[in-house]
Amino acid sequence: MRNEDRCRISGYRYEKMLKIKDLGEFGFINRLNPKETVTGLKLGIGDDAAVISPPEGFDLVITTDMLMEGKHFLSDTNPYAIGYRSMCANLSDIAAMGAIPKFYFISLGIDPERDFDYVENIYNGLNSLALQFNTHLAGGDTIKSEKTVLSITLIGYVEKSMAIKREGKIEAKDLIVYIGPLGYSGAGLEVIKNKIDGFDEQVEAFLYPYPQVIAGRILLQSKVVRVMMDNSDGLSNCIENLVIKNGFGALLFEKQIFDERLDAIAEATNKDYLDFVFNGGEDFGLVAVVEKDGFLDLTYFLERALFDSKVKVIGEVIEGEKIVLKRLNDSFLVIEKSGYVQF
User: Of 16, 50, 232, 251, which sits with the fewest C-beta atoms within 10 Å of its C-beta?
Assistant: First the structure.
């Protein structure tokens, strides 16, 4: 029996699966245009450029992130997860500045032979996370590509001259704080690649990470943060940028980093769990150097406000430009900078 007949008998109207090439560029854009009115967006999709009006007393914060099939996600990855992870990467950059995300633009490279349903699910993934933070699509571009490529530009607002940076004045005895999962994304990818059962939380962290936008705003308002960035390229990269480049060293505590689940995944894949922590990346947690006294008063409030997100003091700033890990057995290990490298 043909599909047309099967659908007719069951009471459904048969439609051929729509290809992107069947829509054409403007049909494609029209299908994805949310056609909504958003405060601050004076002109959106449909014109040569968007017009955005930031609120008085705020700076614009702008970030761009690109993800490519085969490099950042597997070819058989659920398209919804592709969109979700892409949006998370950008929201996480905005969170690291303590800013409020507001609008995004997406440039998409896609095979025109792909079903439109595939692209629609990418956009559904993007929007499902973006709308949690009142962030709206304002424009974009498309191009023919053999592999799926997404480039997202996200625009946010932050109070004038208040954005938190990577470079700043830090001091010995300052605390090094981590908010969010640590090492779970890299471990989750290994679980998927090696088809290991029993580690759903780590797989979830890889496919559907969560940006720490709320934590970023709380930390900005607290005024105890000296420097901060998001963990997109591994903890060693973060410590290098926040501590070493600001003229100091870091003493990290393994008792605050060790995770039995990560250790089990490492053993099953013949790896060291510390590789997930220091070099894995894409956890999209926040790493911050904070004033000791002020942050201890803030910890309880942060944990209440962030629900499931873990808040840990993982180390302290020390003299000497090196990264040292105090092991569980009280020995010391010097951590060489690595992290995820793009080129």
Answer: 16
| 8 A C-beta contact, residue 17 and residue 113 | no
- 309 — phi, psi (to 5°)? -75, 130
Same domain, yes or no: 326 and 248:
yes
Q: Is 142 annotated as a binding-site member? A: no
3 state SS for 149-167: EEEEEEEEEEECCCCCCCC
Predicted model pTM: 0.87
Domain that holds residue 228: 175-334
Q: Examine the domain organization and report whether 94 and 191 are in the same domain.
A: no
Strands, sheet with 58-68, edge to edge from the N-terminal-most edge strand: 58-68, 149-159, 100-110, 136-144
CA 341 vs CA 23, 66, 337: distances in Å: 38, 14, 11
The answer to whether 64 is a known ligand-binding residue is yes
Q: Is 72 annotated as a binding residue?
A: yes
For residue 14, say whether it is annotated as part of any ligand binding site: no
Given 159, 183, 212, the domain boundary residue is: 159
**pLDDT tens-place string over residues 249-294:** 999 999 999 999 999 999 999 999 999 999 998 999 999 999 998 8
Q: Is 234 assigned to a binding site? A: no
Q: Which amino acid is at 175?
A: L
Q: Give the Cα separation of 268 and 53 in Å (integer).
A: 52
Residue-level pLDDT at 23: 56
The annotation status of 63 as a binding-site residue, yes or no, is yes
Is there a binding annotation on residue 115?
no
Q: pLDDT tens, 219-258?
A: 999 999 999 999 999 999 999 999 999 999 999 999 999 9
65 has binding-site annotation: yes
Same domain, 119 and 194: no
What is the tally of structural domains in the chain? 2
Is 230 within any annotated ligand binding site? Answer: yes
CATH number assigned to the domain comprising residue 117:
3.30.1330.10
Q: Is 232 annotated as a binding residue?
A: yes
- Round to whole Å and give the CA distance between 254 and 306: 23
* 59 marked as binding residue: no
Boundary-marking domain end, from 159, 189, 213: 159
